[in-house]
Every structure is written in structure tokens, then in C-alpha cells.
Amino acid sequence: MSELRARIAGVGAYLPDRILSNDELSSMVDTSDSWIRERTGIRQRHIAADDETTCDLAEAASRRAIEQAGLTPDDIDLIIVATTTPDFTFPSTATLLQARLGVSGGAAFDVQAVCSGFIYGLSIADNFIARGQARNVLVVGAETMSRILDWTDRSTCVLFGDGAGAMVLQAHEPGHDAASEPGILATYLRSDGRFKDLLHVDGGPSSTGTVGHLRMLGNQVFRHAVTNIAESMSTIATRTGIKIADIDWFVPHQANQRILEGVARRLSIPTHKVISTVADHGNTSAASVPLAFDRAVQDGRIKPGDLVLMEALGGGFTWGAVLARV
Q1: Does 55 qualify as catalytic in the annotation?
Q2: Is residue 213 annotated as part of the catalytic site, yes or no?
């Protein structure tokens, strides 16, 4: 029997009802709509309600993904939640989600790779499926980034928002023409802890006993993001023997429109092939890739048979890419 492949069976997304516009934000901190748009491309972000947690967002996105896959929660045998803003230090948000969905049995755990978390989660799920250890895996990126922002720091609070995206991966045994069949074709993960000070949260249970706030040196993060994301995309294309030009869609982490454009220029990618949703929800960390993927599926851009390259860079630094045929 050939190695099992993880195919994308369903996607789902959820954004909180409350929208925080640039104009409203400018009444809270010294900024303006034009300043934010020019530097980031963001026009608004969604903010979770006071009684809305990361697990709440994850549940809404997950139910939509499971339904689109034509499955029920009982069909799910592994849940992976990528988040840097869990409901609790423990138990994991994934186990909370497992209980909410009524999933009986299987396994559930969180992945912490910040903005790259969903990419890491897809890679882990792909390996579980390839080894025959799971058949239907729910991978979720969910964040309430508003809870760790310093709302007096205009360099960071304008960038982030809350949301969740989910994807169901299902075991699939490819036939003779494996290259044309659906599934994850390759994954690529990297990290470098030397750059912690460029993007981090200044608190934690073991260090300060506090949640802390997000801190970032934006210009330096920008440079590393463009370089490392482009490198991961080029590497995965080389490993699979697929040219960048032959990939139908690029779904990047939605951090900043200028980063998306910088990567596209570096690799000579036409802008119409880059899925961009950053204007509508800002940087939602681990949720941003599945949110953008879901948007492009729902509006008909991403179709069965398309080659899609997803990529991200997050604090740590962590970065990586996943190439899949839908």
C-alpha cells in the first residue's frame, strides 16, 4: 500500500461580531486611518466580546469545517489547535474544544508556534495521517490577540485582531497519478530562537506570573519575514520539483500587506495569485492562514485541483510552508 496522503476535506472560519475600525482606534491611541493603511494595509480588525474566548472562536470555525467535510464530530480522531492565546495555561484549548464538540476518544493537543502555528499544525497532522495514526484530523488556528495587546502602543495595537479558522484533513490513498491527486505534497518547518527579542510577549507563568503584552521591533521583523518566507516557499518548490510559476494560489500569513507584496516581488509572483484578507481582519496570528484560505474557497477562487502554497512566520522566530493540491 502506498503512503496515505492528507487531503483537505473541509474548511471553516469565524470572526467575532465586533469590528474595530481604524477611525475608532484613532480615538484610543495616537494614530489615523491613513497612517495605518499606508504602513499595513489594514482598515479594520475583529475583537472578541468580553465573554468570548479562544475556544468559542475555535468551536464556531470547527463546526463549519466539519460540516463542509461531510463528517460529524464523532468522525474526528485527532484535534490540533494552534494558538498563542489559550483559554487556560492548562488544560489545552484543544481538549476544551474536544469536549465542546462532543468528540469521544482520539487525542487533542495545542501547538504553540505563534503566527506559524497553523502551518506547524498541518505538518503534524500530515505526519499522523501518513503513519496511519489518524484518519480525520481537525486542525484549528484560533486567537484572541486583543487580550495580550498594549492598547497604548500604536506600533502593535493597530496590527492585530481576533478570529479562528479550521481545516479537516482526511486520509486519502493516491492512485497511480499521485501528483495530480488531492492532498498535502510537502511541508517545511524552521525556527531560530536567537531572534526572540524582535517579537515576543513580555510575560508568562514561569517568568513573571503575568500574561504580559506583545512587543515587536517592526522594521527588523519585516526584513526577516520577507527573507524567511520567500526562502521557505522556494525550498518547498525545489523539493517537489514544482515551479513557483505553476502554483495557482499563495495563501500567506496575513501580517502586513507590505510583507505580502515584498515576498511576491522577491519571487516574481503576480499579485492576483496572492490571497490577501489582512485589510478586513488584520493579523490574527495562527488564525490568519485558514481565515484567508476559507475566504478564497467561499468566493470560488480556490477550486478542486488547484495547487496552493500556504506560508507563515511568527515570533520565536518560527516559519514554514505547506504545499497542497486541493
Answers
A1: no
A2: no
Q: What whole-number distance in Å separates Cα of residue 64 and Cα of residue 60?
A: 7
The one catalytic residue among 115, 157, 200, 213: 115
Of the residues 157, 253, 256, 281, which is catalytic?
A: 253
Instruction: Outline where DSSP puts E strands in the chain.
Output: 5-14, 18-21, 44-47, 78-82, 107-111, 136-144, 162-172, 183-191, 199-201, 214-216, 249-252, 307-314, 318-325
CA 212/CA 207 separation, integer angstroms: 10
pLDDT tens per residue, range 76-114: 999 999 999 999 999 999 999 999 999 988 999 999 999
Known active-site residue 283: yes
DSSP H helices in 158-272: 218-240, 257-266
Position 283 scores a pLDDT of 98
Residue 304's closest CA among 182, 187, 137, 186?
A: 182
